[in-house]
Design brief:
globular; three-stranded mixed β-sheet; 8 helices; alpha/beta; eight-stranded mixed β-sheet; Lipoate--protein ligase family protein; BPL_LPL_catalytic; ligase activity; BirA Bifunctional Protein, domain 2
Length: about 240
């Protein structure tokens, strides 16, 4: 496999983060790419989900919590600075799209001293979900990303997401009990948690030297902001600007 890299990029706006996440896929890297990032408080729904079925819209509006849409599938997630996002981009056809992400995140969780179990689209410790997974792919490149609850308060997650609907649909989120590293007794600075994830990824993928975003990735981010992530109808209904 060609050599990989870790992108070091920080954006303060959730739309910029989601656009850059997709830009890493669209630029078609020749080797593995890892990106660690965080969002301010927001709710992010999956590509084909309906906001009314997933989100407590009135509570989000009351508290000024934006609701955004990402390009990958999977369920709705609550983001805040205590939730570390891990993006993994892999070139070439990948027959088991979540396998490498699951290996990286379970290795990281075990390095943090917790018994990791790969379950339904995520990592569980006991009966509580610690990491959630989602994927998005083109013909030649796979993007798989994970959340990792570092110190996010589980009560805040439930405050903005709906419970299981009485009439489940195929694209609805599968709600699970969640608990953060902190709630499992792991009290580490965020930088140490990030270094643990980096070490787990490098152990499985080889050296991942840090680098700045490329000009192509930033240009792709700008284009995606225009067509999707700064376009209200993308977030509301999944329709992009043409």
């Amino acid at each position: 496999m060609p050599s990989g890299s870790e992108v070091r990029a920080e954006f303060t706006d959730p739309a910029e983060n989601l656009a850059f996440d997709e830009a890493l896929l669209r630029e078609g890297p020749t080797g593995p790419v890892v990106w660690l990032w965080r969002n301010p408080v927001c709710v992010v729904v999956g590509r084909g989900q309906r906001i009314a079925r997933e989100v407590r819209v009135a509570e989000c509006a009351r508290d000024g919590v934006p609701v955004l849409r990402r390009a990958s599938g999977g369920g709705t997630v609550f983001h805040d600075p205590g939730n570390l996002n891990v993006t993994l981009v892999l070139p070439g056809p990948v027959p088991r799209p979540l396998e490498m992400l699951g290996l990286v995140m379970s290795a990281a969780v075990e390095k943090l001293g917790l018994p990791a179990r790969i379950g339904d689209r995520g990592i569980f410790v006991g009966d509580a979900k610690l990491c959630g997974f989602a994927v998005f792919r083109t013909k030649d490149v796979l993007l798989a990303h994970s959340t990792l609850l570092v110190d996010t308060d589980a009560a805040r997650v439930g405050a903005y997401l709906t419970g299981p609907p009485p009439d489940p649909k195929p694209l609805d989120s599968h709600r699970s009990k969640v608990a953060s590293l902190l709630e499992h007794g792991v009290r580490l600075p965020l930088a140490e948690v990030e270094d643990t994830v980096r070490a787990a990824a490098a152990g499985l993928l080889g050296p991942l030297p840090p680098r700045e975003p490329t000009a192509g990735e930033l240009e792709r981010q700008r284009a995606l902001l225009w067509s999707r992530y700064e376009y209200p109808e993308w977030h509301a209904e999944g329709r992009q600007r043409s």
